[in-house]
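Re: your question from the hallway

Yes, I did run it. Sequences:
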Amino acid sequence: MQVNENFEPVIVAFCCNWCSYAGADLSGTNRLNYPTNVKIIRVPCSCRVNPIFILRAFQRGADGVIICGCHPGDCHYTSGNYFTRRRITLLYSMLDFLGIERNRTRLEWVSAAEGAKFAAVMNQFTEDVRKLGPNRRLEDLRCRKQ
Amino acid sequence: MQEAMIKRAKELLADGTVNRVMGWKKGEFVYDTTPAVFETAEELEKEFVCNDFTQANLSKYLIKESRKEGKILAFLKPCDTYSFNQLLKEHRIIRENVYVIGIPGGPKLDMEKIKAKGISGILDVKNENFTLKIETLYGTETMPFYEAVSGKCADCKSKKHVVYDELIGEDGDVLASRRFDMVEKLENMTSQERYDFWRGELSKCIRCNACRNVCPACTCENCVFDNPKSGIDQKAAADSFEENMFHIIRAFHVAGRCTDCGECSRVCPQNIPLHLLNRKFIKDINSLYGEYQAGADTTSKCPLTDYDTDDCEPSIVHERGVE
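Structure:
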């Protein structure tokens, strides 16, 4: 695939209020860099992320979607992220089955103490999506910016 | 078989066990049979039909019918009993109000496959030793029975009735089906090939909502696709995204509850292989979370409302197969 050097992907990150959102905060207070391409949406729990949210994000111009939640076993609501894990595995598998590039979707467990991990994950994911180029297979032409 | 069913239905109507009978009604042609409710012996005699074309799954109708006054008799094929059982599990059907008679299943025939042979003006179709004798306006035609078997019956998963009050005919067994072959074939394609395949199929969608309406697992009173704020309610897809979205969400909402009855693909006026999306979920659930057949019992937990602390991570999707 031809790589456009100037391409800046839009990354939507759904972050759990209790872990990953605090992790993002920590990476900020630690002065760690992560790309400005990442747009964080705070959710009460990673389990709150409805498959429609992910599809909507792609529709409205996201090139990659990442979901961040507490590590399994650490959920603020005891078991939310276990359900997330099954649901999102099946959804990502279905998106892959429909031919959507699999590297546009990701799920990572980031705790409130892992500011460095948050920054590393976001840097890595943004690079992966940048390589893929703009999202064309799951975009809505009416929402395209240029 | 039809005679035995009518006879038994009349007996049950006469002795007051039931006050209605759910079955299929004759249409203008031998192949158009419609689900219908019969209330009298005369109606049964005149209009009740059970032949090679009575494919429709009656389970979903029983949600509303079981809430009415009195008991209803329903004739269920093996695949329909799975849907029925799944609905019982979800507390959608009132079991006391339904008298289930299990009848042998297919293989049923698909009229489109007969018509595709260029046979027209069809008056009657008879199965004689696995050869179809088709009477048409222009004389009699023959074709092998198995060439006309409908898609959902060709991939039959089970001939066993999982729930019934009595049986007409004999109970069968769960079959070793090759129903995941096509899903596997798609999985082995590259991402671009899969994308092209699905674009070709899903772009045919006219959003008639038939797949949703017929599905025995789609039983929400308020459907997400009827939400006026969803932006995709009651209209044809305006963009390829909307086509994808409808079908992903439709399949996702029945994941773990779909019994693979095949009704979605059967009713699709555009012949989109919708069952492949459902089967992909079933295959994933089987391989990742253990073998699970929705509707096989009423006690086990649906895989998506359950979890295991040792479940695999979603990254498994990124690692397997070809990109």
